[in-house]
Write a structure and sequence with these properties.
With 410 residues, the protein is of the alpha+beta class. It has 2 domains: 199 residues, no CATH class; 182 residues, no CATH class. It has 15 helices and 10 strands. Strands 1, 2, 3, 4, 5, 6, 7, 8, 9 and 10 form a 10-stranded mixed beta sheet that branches.
Length: 410
């Protein structure tokens, strides 16, 4: 029988004389609960924020993009893009691949004279599902690009529509920076808002056939091929694999990962990880010192018991182990309440969106949360391990207690 564990369980019992009934120990337990709860919420929020940002980036640009090698002068396209798309989609790791044609333009509203707005027109394949844009529609509908005749429908963001004072059904004109000048008339059929202003401001969806005519390209030619993978962790491996096969086929293309297309966004997200580590270190340190003070008070409160056990032949190492067991039980109790606190607050935010944000600054209208079971398990394990290691030093106090004097101590 483990005597230390048996005595520790008796000391952990609530009620008169129980370790958990000492006020300072209750404060230490509350400190552990508050600290762990805040740590879990910080991890949930940062993980949710990073997930929301990356999902919006994937919606605009996908995981991988096949593009022609950089060139100067007129825009280059990828010939026989449709055959490349079929070849790429046949790969087991690829979820979807679609071609697009891009061309910069200047939009001019017919309702507000003199107002113009620079955008990037993106012509989509007729087979493009557009789930991302459909999820963020705020007015109208997604234009139908599957018609036999070229569609004049256009999908633009709420930011651009507000600046140009446009609504669904309004007409506008697109001008292209080239000679001779060839304006094109479009009709606003849908308005979207993702909250990602840097991309909402410029990305406008149109029928790809408009841009093919303007560029003088043959059917099947594309500016790039967007590739969505089944597993986001395979981007580096798949980019190298697809690039090697494209070089072997002499396609004259390069494969770029999303991290290479928008490095500033991913560098910013990496800085958020540093903030999380700073928060975790500070809160673990505070929680550890709370437990140190609680354990010291507990040892002084049980000094008579320590003297009796020493008189019965207990060694210092066994007494230290006893108080580590008691500390572990108190920490576990605080961690249980900390997990409950974190999940209750996270549930309230997820269901009712209690805390809102300014989408102009944070790219979203409410605080996002993302739950990962491994984050929870690792954080709980790390907190209990670090806190117990911190408590090893205070347990050395028991070796300095004299059994004769301690049994007289009241």
């Amino acid at each position: 029988m483990n005597v230390e564990w048996y005595i520790a369980r008796r000391l952990l019992r609530e009620g008169r004389g129980g370790a958990a009934s000492i006020p300072i120990v209750k404060i230490a337990i509350a400190g552990i609960a508050m600290g762990l709860g805040m740590m879990l919420l910080a991890v949930f929020v940062i993980a949710g924020f990073k997930r929301e940002i990356t999902q919006k980036l994937f919606g605009f640009m996908a995981h991988l993009n096949v593009q022609p090698h950089e060139s100067t002068g007129e825009a280059r396209g990828i010939p026989r893009g449709d055959s490349l798309i079929s070849w790429i989609e046949a790969m087991a790791e690829v979820k979807q691949a679609y071609g697009y044609v891009e061309k910069p333009a200047i939009l001019k509203s017919r309702r507000r004279e003199g107002t113009i707005h620079g955008v990037l027109l993106r012509g989509m394949e007729a087979s493009y599902e557009a789930l991302f844009f459909r999820q963020h529609l705020v007015a109208g509908r997604f234009p139908d690009f599957t018609t036999d005749t070229i569609s004049n429908g256009i999908l633009l963001s709420a930011y651009a529509a507000g600046y140009l004072e446009l609504s669904v059904g309004d007409k506008l004109t697109a001008y292209f920076v080239e000679e001779p000048r060839r304006p094109r008339a479009f009709e606003v059929q849908g308005i979207y808002r993702t909250g990602f202003k840097e991309y909402d401001d410029v990305v406008v969806l149109v029928d790809k056939r408009h841009l093919l005519r303007l560029n003088g390209w043959a059917a099947g030619t594309v500016s790039g091929i967007a590739i969505t993978l089944k597993e986001t962790g395979q981007t580096r491996e798949m980019s190298q694999r697809i690039a090697a096969l494209l070089d072997k086929a002499g396609a004259g293309c390069t494969v770029r990962r999303l991290e290479e297309i928008a490095p500033q966004i991913f560098d910013w997200l990496k800085l958020l990880d540093i903030n999380v580590w700073i928060i975790l270190v500070l809160l673990v340190t505070v929680a550890g010192f709370n437990m140190v003070s609680g354990l010291l008070i507990l040892i002084l409160d049980k000094v008579t018991l320590i003297g009796i056990l020493k008189a019965l032949g207990y060694q210092d190492i066994s007494l230290r182990r006893l108080f580590l067991y008691v500390s572990a039980g108190l920490i576990a109790r605080g961690m249980l309440w900390g997990n409950v606190l974190a999940f209750v607050l996270a549930g309230l935010q997820s269901c009712f969106h209690v805390i809102t944000l300014d989408p102009e600054t944070y790219y979203m209208s409410t605080v996002p949360l993302f739950f990962n079971v491994w984050h929870v398990l690792l954080l709980n394990a790390g907190v209990i391990l670090v806190t117990i290691l911190i408590l090893v030093v205070p347990t050395m106090l028991v070796s300095r207690i004299d059994p004769v004097r301690s049994m007289r101590f009241e």
